[in-house]
Amino acid sequence: MPRIRVRLDAPRDRSYTVEIRPGLLAEVPLLLSRSDGRKRMFVVTDENVLRLYGRPFMDRLASGGCDALLLDVPAGERSKSGGTLSRLYAKLFRGGVRRDSLVIALGGGVIGDLAGYLSATALRGVRLVQIPTTLLSQVDSSVGGKVGIDHAAGKNLIGAFHQPAAVYIDPEALRTLPPEEFRSGLAEVIKIAAALDAPFFVQLERNAARIRKENTPLLTRIIETAVALKASVVEKDERETGLRRILNLGHTVGHALESSSGFALRHGEAVAIGMVCEAKIALELGLLARAECQRLEALLEASGLPVAPPRRINERAFLASMSLDKKGVAEGNRFVLLRRIGESAHGVPVPGDLVRKTMGFPAKKSTHG
Fold it and tell me: Would you name the residues annotated as active-site residues?
């Protein structure tokens, strides 16, 4: 079984293990019953995952003698809200949550973020276990401790850093993933490779036609590589003060697109478009060669992902969302930009006119006459 250790030992040890193995989902209840069987557990999931995996998961916990309560929410980004969070708090408190309780996030990125923030803030923090069931959450959001909810002003504007006690990844869970959600997850895989590791990017290029949700052996290797790369960054910069910002490649534009579309764009779709737009910005600034930009665009297209902004973007909503992006600074938005495949720079200032040009917005009228 591939095991990746995320080492976070300062100022106190919060290290944890990410276990990756086909078929692991069915074994997790037994593992939890052995390690935490006497503690109150709260399993947070959505209606889709409940139907596919939630009921059998709860039955196995019960068979193992675990005291577990199921908390399900509607599927989709709109559940990452203050209203949903408030209802979950009420269920936790009625259910007898204690500081030694365990919150289990069973689902995709929305559930991981929501349950993670719930566990970070209830009683000032209870332990969290992540069991990601989508490709996006398996390679990215379940590892690293960034949790949160959305606000009307933008995505992930309310959040915390709260590391899980463990992460359990079963690549076979991806077999039930809708094709569009699988492709959305591929965007985060490509982001990690483009930002951090040129050989991994080449591996994705060579295997693009073979990367399918049914190809569990290949996916297991890809997930292991992506998680190991992310873990190495998190270990060096847990709180995203420097190096970890590189993992936001494509997200400055991507989050603004996602929010301004009313979440009609999936996260991975928005990030894919964001990566291409930001690569074109890097090209214009002389940071990135055209051939490298073309490689990125070609791999995203080969993976079935969009590479151009929608024709109709709410310009005002887009720019407002980008200005509130958590990676912005007082002097204006600073971007993560590629220098070449596998190497990125963070904190790069980008003129507003270049952003507008790249997004296809009309040039800002001069106030001088």
Answer: 124, 146, 188, 230, 240, 244, 248, 251, 255, 267
